[in-house]
Amino acid sequence: MSAPVVPDLHSVRNEFRNELLASGLLIDAGKPGLYGRSGLFDDIVDSLDGALTGIMAPLDAERMRFAPVYPKTEFELTDYIVSFPNLTGSINGFTGTDRDHASLITARANGEDWNDWLSPAETMLVPAVCHPLYERLSGSLPVGGRVFDLAGYCFRHEPSSDPMRLQAFRMHEFVYVGEEETAREFRDTWIVRLLVLLQELGLDARTVPANDPFFGRAGRMLARNQLADDLKLELVVPIYGDLDDGTAVGSGNCHGDHFGQSFGILAGDGSVAHGACVAYGMERVTLALLRTHGFEPASWPSDVRKRLGWAA
Length: 312
Ligand code: AMP
Ligand code: ZN
Hints:
Elements: H1 9-23, E1 26-28, E2 35-37, H2 39-56, E3 62-64, E4 69-71, H3 72-78, H4 80-83, E5 90-93, H5 98-109, E6 119-125, E7 139-140, E8 146-155, E9 168-178, H6 180-200, E10 206-209, H7 216-228, E11 232-237, E12 247-256, H8 258-263, E13 265-266, E14 274-281, H9 282-293, H10 302-307
Parallel strand pairs: 3-8, 7-13
Antiparallel strand pairs: 1-2, 4-6, 5-6, 8-9, 9-14, 10-11, 11-12, 12-14
Helix pairs in contact: 2-6, 2-9
């Protein structure tokens, strides 16, 4: 008699990925964590975005959109390279002469790598959609601060076979910059609204204290401090049953005065500005919906369909 097959996390993740590819919802784009998406997948993203924008409407946030590429000088000020060097992505370009180009083409024709002919373009891939905002805020903010609605692509170099872990994904963030007390209130208030929307969408979501994956030995202390100071909350949904602790489909972060200090932003009361943001990872919420309700949105529960603005 053969032993019963006990599913392990790795094979369950692979199975979910294979099902998504077979259904056409995701399209293999050639590297782990890089996918194209079907129209149906993006219809869900768009409807989710509509529901999210709806619940955040009372904030009257200033809507801004930035490209997924920003100056290295600004990236530098975020200190991202100190905390997450392994997730970083930078842009290279060709700025050589005709002669350099000819050498590149010869190397390429010989099957050699041509990376050496490219050089840093002094631009970086955006790892969180709020990063390109802060330089724009240097100076003084009005009393009460400002609230922004930011969305777009983020890049994090974390190739994985888990379809929940992408290298390029969309984030929709609501960001407060201003007085310290208001920043924490903002995070604590709006993370609850984000949680409730997930629950209204039929997801078994909960809020858990969390830390960012700071790199290396020094990072372990940063992670401990972040947890101890209650700076990060994640919205977690079970995707792989009991095999893991669930996947973060959103988060709420208190940045303290980190960006205020680095970018020279003052709150209305003259103190260094504090910041906070709450966000959904749009692909992750969409994948959680597909995992929970099945791959046929036409047959999702009618209250979920209604909440997404679809005919029930
Ligand atoms: P964070 O700033 O790390 O809290 O990220 C905000 C949200 O973006 C997370 O809660 C996830 O939903 C999403 N996210 C972060 N990293 C990834 C990734 N590698 N792939 C897909 N979504 C991600
Ligand atoms: Zn942010």
